[in-house]
Every structure is written in structure tokens, then in C-alpha cells.
């Protein structure tokens, strides 16, 4: 029996903290998940907690230590690997135990799983039972402990007022932390290209085949269209680094930061990948083999292949299976519904209750991110009222303590964050000096007021869920996709697997459109906003709107042919 994966879904990265320890909770059951590598302090705090819980040695890594960010990340990932391996060892010992961990492993599998069939077959004889135990010991699929770098978050760092070399940038340090860890897993790059970062990868041998032709560390690209996949795939291949998987994400149906396209819908994008998958593989494979030969490196022991998966807005087993069957996806990412499963993600009860009550009207695309990228959010009037109160008191903004999102140089030579006290104080003074009408001034003020401290806010719920008192104060931020509106029940890993594989349904009674139609409706709203904001004589904006309309029209026609519309 040859099985690479136990499950046909993975759990994508969610926020800075919500999935930072998800592999500890799910990897032993064969489920892949992704850790954000943005917040090294959060990882350090959790490492201390988990080391105490699992009786592992702990030595803190101070921010005064040289290269502390990379060292914290390496130490955390090594610890997660140790815990998962320990859990897997215990699970394998329980193969014959009723109610043991292996029984739970089996209960989570999809219908007609070959592992389940083999287990039931093994019960027929002692020899088959012994053979199955040996197979479990040697070949049982375990979930990947994957990591994520959002390539835009590569802030330059300073020492004594001088910029440090680029390898000390945030994303570079995170990459180094992963590269030096003992993990054998994948790094997921999201949010586009960072050529300097990609070149830096060539310094680490784990991204290249070893003496046995094996890759210890692999690359996954999160992409929104085929062209992006081809361009980036070739860039990596020319460096002798293979992209093992392309994760196609809906620009609007996913959680967290949203990267809307120019009206190009997910369905047509998936169709293009389906039609051009072989050409993507052949083009990159040729460049990859030439690069390895030029570097005088070993070729992989197997001809390199690619996996293609999709994520963003999936909410029913029918949609899951449709992506697998019609488009040939190798896996499907399920994110937002897992936010209601506190045994999978790290979330505090108060935030969980907010999400359980959130409907379509409470979930919206906001401008809360200091990056200036649309950000999925939940309406929380009490937090908005508090920010307005602080602004009225001359205390707008937040203390910039973690500094991961310092990118604005509007008022300063060195970048600062647009959610910080420093930026907002200067921006508010600038707005007031412009002599705007009361209504126009309020519009500009609201743009400032909406910014959240993501660095702290996206991690506090995680700390609170582990009974760790947050060191810094900021409102909790949560970033579910619009799909959350159709789930209202607190769940767990078992229920989510039942839902994904069609063994049970945990949708609420809110009428739910197909994931493709939901995305289409959201793009139609964006088009309306673009038209409403169009200024007379703006020819460039007019051309962009026409292109947007044409792309939407093509998508609508495609969905009509598909029978979805």
C-alpha cells in the first residue's frame, strides 16, 4: 500500500497566531497545516509554555542576542517537530488499543480511505495484523509542519541608527530560521515576488537535493493566476530550487489580507491551470535540471513533479470534491471554518463567541491593515467607539512595539507604521491644516481611525487561549473570510473532518451561494465602488474599469457554460 497523504485538505496560515501551533494539534493525524513566521516574540512565548507542558528543556532567547529573530524561529520549529514526533510515536503504539489515538486517526479519514480499508482487512488474521502494524510504523502519513512568509513583510532593521545588511531584514531572518531548523517540510511564499529574498535562499543547502537526491525543504507558492505561477516557478527553477506546489487562492473569498484581481474570477483561473499544468511542469523542469547541472548538484532521485491546490471560500463537501474532480486539484485548503474549532486554532473564548455570532453584515473588507491592502474583518462597534474616544483625547493610534509593519515614510526618513501614535498624530495635524469641510475632514479622519495594530492584535487571542497574559495592549484583531457567515456552531477537528468529507453538515440556516458566485458578487460590489469613485476625465481609471468589466463578463460566461449560473 503506497499512500502519500491521508487527507485531501490542508489548513492554511491564519493570522499571526491562530495557526502558529496548529501542527502540534493536527499533524499526528496526517493533516498538513501552516505556521506564520512573522511574530518571533509570540513563538518564543509559546515555546516556553509548551516546553513546560511537555517537560522539554527551555532557555529563553533575549532580543539582545545576535540574530535573535532567526534563532527564536529555529528553536520554536524544532520544538514543534519534537512534540509532533513524540505524539506520532504514541499514536503508532496505540494501533491495537480501543479508543486510542490511532482510532481517532482513523475516525478523521475520508470515506473509503485505503488506510481504513487496510485496517479492517488486517483484523481477519494475525499475519495481516502484524503486517499492518509494520506498515503503520514505517509508512503512516503524518501531516506536514509547513511555514509561511508573506514576502512583503521584509522590513529593514537598524542598529545604532544604521541599516543592517539585508539578511537581517524580517523575511530574510524568518527564512534563515526555517532553513536552519531540523524540519523536513515546505515554506509557503505569499503576497508576490521578493527577488532579493528568493536569491538569499540559494545560501541554504536544504533547498537543493542531497547526496541521495532528496529534498529536505520544499517550496510552495501561493498564487492568484497562471502567469504569476509560471514567472515565479521559472525564477526558482533557474536558481536550482524546485517549486513543489502551487496554491491558487481566491482574491476575495479567503481570510486575512485580500488581494483582489482586476475582475478575473477563480473559476477561469483554475481552468487555465487545468489546461496548462503540463506546460508549467515541463518549462520549469527543463530550467531546473539545467540549473542543477550548472551548479554541479545532484539531480533528485525522482523526476520532479508539482502539486496544485486551491483555497479560499470553500465551504461544502460538494465544492471540495468539485475542485478535486473537475479541476484535478491535488488538495483543497480549508481555512475560515476552522476558526470555530478551538482544538485546532489558538483562539480565546471572547473572540470565538464574536465569530459564532457573525453574519454576512458583520463580515466585511476593511482598510484596517497598515499595509494599505484590503483586510477581512468583523464589525466590533465597541472597538470603533474606543478608537474614536482616543482620537478625541489626542491619543490616536497605538504604541508601535513589535514593528513588523513599518513601511510608511510620508513624514519620516525611517519607515513607521500607519497605525502608530507617531504617524497618526502627524497625519491628523496635516488633515486639520487643509481647511476641509466638516464632512470631507471626517472622511479623511475615518481613514486614519480604521487602522488596527495587527502586530499585537493578531496575537493576543492566541496568548489568551494559552492563559498567557499579553505583554502589550491592543484590541484583538481577527480576520475570517466571508465564508464564516454560514457557520455558527463551535466545532472541533472531528466535526470539521465530518463536514469536509460529507459525513455530516454544520452549516447554519443562512442561504449560502456557491463559492464561485459569492466571489463574483463581491467583485460586482467592487466594480460598483470603482464606478462611483470615478472622476470625470480620468482616462486611466476608465480603461481599468473597462478591463475589469470585460474580465467579469468572461467569468460570467464561463460560469454559465459550467452550469453554475
Q: Would you report the number of β strands?
A: 12
- Mind summarizing the main beta sheet? 8 strands, parallel, barrel
Distance between the termini: 42 Å
Radius of gyration: 24 Å
Number of helices in the DSSP assignment: 19
Describe this structure in words.
The protein is an alpha/beta fold. It has a domain at 349-489. The protein is 44% helix and 9% strand. The strands form three sheets. It has an eight-stranded parallel beta barrel, surrounded by five helices. β8 (243-249), α10 (266-294) and β9 form a beta-alpha-beta unit. The longest helix is centred in the middle third of the chain and has 29 residues, at 266-294. The mean pLDDT is 96.
What key attributes describe this structure?
single chain, 565 residues, alpha/beta, 8-stranded parallel beta barrel, two-stranded antiparallel ribbon, 19 helices, 12 strands, globular
Put the structure in a nutshell.
The protein is built from 19 helices and twelve strands. Helix content is 44%, strand content 9%. The protein has a domain at 349-489.
SSE arrangement:
Layout: E1 9-11, H1 22-26, E2 32-36, H2 40-53, H3 68-93, H4 101-107, H5 114-122, H6 126-139, E3 145-150, E4 158-159, E5 162-163, H7 170-179, E6 186-190, H8 195-200, E7 218-223, H9 226-237, E8 243-249, H10 266-294, E9 307-311, H11 317-327, E10 331-333, H12 349-357, E11 363-366, E12 375-378, H13 381-392, H14 421-432, H15 438-449, H16 454-465, H17 493-500, H18 515-533, H19 539-562
Parallel strand pairs: 1-2, 1-10, 2-3, 3-6, 6-7, 7-8, 8-9, 9-10
Antiparallel strand pairs: 4-5, 11-12
Helix pairs in contact: 2-3, 3-7, 5-6, 9-10, 14-15, 18-19
Amino acid at each position: 500500500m503506497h499512500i502519500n497523504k491521508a487527507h485531501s485538505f490542508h489548513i492554511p496560515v491564519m493570522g499571526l497566531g491562530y495557526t502558529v501551533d496548529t501542527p502540534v494539534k493536527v499533524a499526528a493525524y496526517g493533516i498538513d497545516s501552516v505556521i506564520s513566521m512573522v511574530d518571533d516574540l509570540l513563538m518564543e512565548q509559546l515555546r516556553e509554555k509548551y516546553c513546560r507542558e511537555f517537560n522539554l528543556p527551555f532557555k529563553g532567547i533575549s532580543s539582545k542576542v545576535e540574530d535573535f529573530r532567526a534563532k527564536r524561529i529555529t528553536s520554536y520549529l524544532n520544538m514543534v517537530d519534537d512534540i509532533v514526533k513524540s505524539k506520532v510515536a504514541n499514536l503508532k503504539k496505540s494501533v491495537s488499543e480501543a479508543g486510542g489515538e490511532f482510532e481517532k486517526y482513523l475516525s478523521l479519514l475520508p470515506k473509503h480511505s485505503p488506510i481504513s480499508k487496510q485496517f479492517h482487512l488486517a483484523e481477519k488474521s494475525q499475519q495481516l495484523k502484524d503486517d499492518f502494524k509494520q506498515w503503520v510504523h514505517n509508512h503512516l502519513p503524518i501531516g506536514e509542519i509547513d511555514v509561511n512568509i508573506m514576502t512583503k513583510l521584509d522590513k529593514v532593521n537598524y542598529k545604532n541608527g544604521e541599516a543592517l545588511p539585508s539578511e537581517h531584514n524580517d523575511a530574510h531572518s524568518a527564512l534563515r530560521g526555517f532553513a536552519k531548523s531540523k524540519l523536513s517540510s515546505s515554506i509557503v511564499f505569499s503576497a508576490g515576488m521578493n527577488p532579493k529574498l528568493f536569491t538569499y535562499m540559494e545560501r541554504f543547502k536544504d533547498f537543493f537535493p542531497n547526496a541521495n537526491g532528496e529534498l529536505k525543504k520544499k517550496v510552495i507558492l501561493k498564487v492568484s493566476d497562471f502567469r504569476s505561477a509560471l514567472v515565479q516557478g521559472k525564477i526558482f527553477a533557474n536558481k536550482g530550487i524546485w517549486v513543489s506546489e502551487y496554491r491558487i487562492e481566491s482574491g476575495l473569498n479567503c481570510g486575512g489580507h485580500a488581494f483582489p484581481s482586476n475582475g478575473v474570477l477563480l473559476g477561469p483561473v483554475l481552468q487555465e491551470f487545468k489546461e496548462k499544468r503540463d506546460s508549467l511542469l515541463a518549462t520549469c523542469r527543463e530550467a531546473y535540471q539545467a540549473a542543477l547541472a550548472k551548479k554541479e548538484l545532484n539531480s533528485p532521485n525522482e523526476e520532479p513533479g508539482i502539486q496544485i491546490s486551491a483555497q479560499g471560500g470553500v465551504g461544502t463537501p460538494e465544492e471540495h470534491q468539485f475542485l478535486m474532480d473537475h479541476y484535478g486539484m491535488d488538495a483543497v485548503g480549508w481555512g475560515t471554518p476552522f476558526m470555530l474549532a478551538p482544538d485546532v486554532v489558538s483562539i480565546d473564548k471572547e473572540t470565538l463567541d464574536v465569530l459564532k455570532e457573525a453574519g454576512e453584515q458583520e463580515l466585511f473588507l476593511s482598510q484596517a491593515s497598515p499595509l494599505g491592502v484590503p483586510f477581512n474583518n468583523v464589525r466590533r462597534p465597541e472597538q470603533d467607539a474606543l478608537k474614536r474616544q482616543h482620537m478625541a483625547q489626542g491619543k490616536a493610534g497605538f504604541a508601535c512595539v513589535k514593528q513588523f509593519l513599518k513601511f510608511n515614510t510620508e513624514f519620516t526618513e525611517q519607515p513607521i507604521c500607519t497605525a502608530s501614535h507617531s504617524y497618526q498624530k502627524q497625519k491628523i495635524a496635516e488633515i486639520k491644516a487643509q481647511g476641509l469641510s466638516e464632512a470631507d475632514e471626517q472622511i479623511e479622519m475615518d481613514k486614519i481611525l480604521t487602522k488596527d495594530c495587527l502586530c499585537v492584535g493578531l496575537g493576543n487571542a492566541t496568548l489568551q487561549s494559552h492563559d498567557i497574559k499579553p505583554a502589550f495592549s491592543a484590541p484583538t484583531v481577527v480576520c475570517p473570510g466571508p465564508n464564516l457567515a454560514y457557520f455558527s456552531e463551535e466545532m472541533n477537528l472531528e466535526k470539521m473532518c465530518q463536514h469536509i468529507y460529507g459525513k455530516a453538515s454544520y452549516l447554519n440556516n443562512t442561504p449560502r451561494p456557491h463559492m464561485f458566485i459569492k466571489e463574483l458578487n463581491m467583485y460586482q460590489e467592487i466594480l460598483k465602488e470603482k464606478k462611483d469613485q470615478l472622476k470625470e476625465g480620468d482616462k486611466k481609471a476608465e480603461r481599468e474599469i473597462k478591463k475589469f468589466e470585460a474580465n467579469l463578463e468572461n467569468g460570467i460566461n464561463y460560469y454559465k457554460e459550467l452550469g453554475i449560473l
